Amino acid sequence: MSEVGHARNVASFEQMVSVVTGLGGAYDPSNADIGLSKLNNKLTASNTVMDDVLAKVAAYTNETNIRQNLYEPLDNLATDSVNYYESTGTEKNKIKDARGFVRKIRGKRAKAVPAPDPDLPVGTPPPVTHSSAQTSYTQRVEHLDGLIELFGEDPLYAPNETNLQLASMTAYSTSLKTATTNVINSITDRDKAKTDRNLVLYHPKTGMLYLADLVKKYVKGKYGASSPQYTQLASLKFRKYKI
Known about the structure:
Elements (H helix, E strand, L loop, with lengths): L2 H21 L12 H36 L2 H14 L4 H15 L30 H16 L13 H37 L5 H16 L4 H7 L9
Helix pairs in contact: 1-2, 2-6, 3-4, 4-5, 5-6, 7-8
């Protein structure tokens, strides 16, 4: 169910509480769980958990945007560092290794995937190849760390440019890892908020929808199925959600 669906359920419950309040002292169920004070408490709790979900989703979105922005310079930084490294006159095999890390950071293959053999029988599965994606945030920063370690082993890597220096690149790597940790934590917080919301709204014995169903049954029993009091409540629609 979309967030709009949950919000509509809470809005319907608020309307139910309003109708029940309008009945005044005539609304007097023996079940204390659907007494007016308990219904108001449930409405307050429902609005609270709904607000918490919105806040946690916003925090998650913010952290993912921060991480995305931090990763933006990575490709260019890796390329610039290897271009500088090549200017030092270091061995060609070291340059090759460095460019291998850059390819992985960018998610590119060293060689193109060979085309299928036209002489193979129809239906023959293609050869297994390693994914060229390798561009998840965690993997990309691991490749950056590999590049930093490679540079650190060669005394010729000693740029005057601050952004290319090992200390700066290491600090950048740390910031990328922190950003991913923050995203992971925000996902945990978001999912917990949704779980809490679902319990408040949809628990089979204490949830908002369960209480709404009991209220309808009580008013139907007290006033009758064709009564205006019950008709008001019967028109309120709730979409069920299984937890």
